[in-house]
Amino acid sequence: MTEPAPRRARVIALVNQKGGCGKTTTTVNLGACLATIGHRVLLVDLDPQANASVSLGVDPATLSRTTYHVLVDPTDPGTAPVAIEEIARPSSVANLDVAPSSIDLAAAELELAARIGRENQLRKKLAPARASYDFILIDTPPSLGLLTLNALVASDEIIIPIQTHYYALLGMQQLLRTLRMVRDETGHDVEILGVVATMYDARNNLSKEIVNTIKEEFGDKVFHTEIHFSIKLVESSMVGVPLFLHNPQNRGAQEYMALAREVVIREEIAGRAEARS
Ligand SMILES: Nc1ncnc2c1ncn2[C@@H]1O[C@H](COP(=O)(O)OP(=O)(O)O)[C@@H](O)[C@H]1O
Ligand SMILES: [Mg+2]
To answer: Which of 25, 26, 230 to mutate to test the pocket of ligand 1 (most atoms within 8 A of CB)?
Structure first.
């Protein structure tokens, strides 16, 4: 009998420096669907606004330690650094743990700025946790600052959510430049796993036109699943339980489940290609 292969989580950051494009909603609902189909998932909240933590039923105001403490190691020699496992906690979804953030994290950009290896901090801290999960998803803030840079360096791949509105592709060149910079400066090749169109509105032709523009830009990187505009997704984030858990028949829930299945398939293909090389 051979030993089962050790788990080694794929790390995926959800990135787009534009605010309000569906990063947090996608991280939370994709995470919940991956967990529901049996994967062990850790969601790392790297946005000081902590919307992902709240959407998973965690109240940041009650926490003494968050991703801030993991990312910014104490400079005081009497204080031990905090591991990601120490802050990861069960969420409102079975199989889905969350490493919550809080508003303190807003200070991390400045505090990290003066340190050596500042963009490697999250990668270093996530390494031991990769043995305990199948997927680690990172929700990022709406900027390309040091927090997002830490997420990029820590990730195998990224998913880019793009809202199907005017100016959808605004800022994409800047994001692609940042990816190239990470590659050139750190030698770490972070791939685009896929691009997902969000808040699709079937009632106007604009959404369709914009999806076509996204496909012209990103080709087969674009996921087949589009996430339609759904007020239920907004409501579910307010009650702290992802949509699939309380309303699995809802279209938004079904779409995120379809996206989760696409992610699993793409990861299997990427993993096999890596194993061969
Ligand atoms: N498919 C959707 N349909 C309707 N509202 C959505 C959808 N996805 C996200 N939203 C809402 O849009 C706002 C921005 O989404 P969010 O996921 O927080 O974006 P980001 O994390 O990129 O800032 C939130 O109020 C969220 O509830
Ligand atoms: Mg967000």
So the answer is: 25
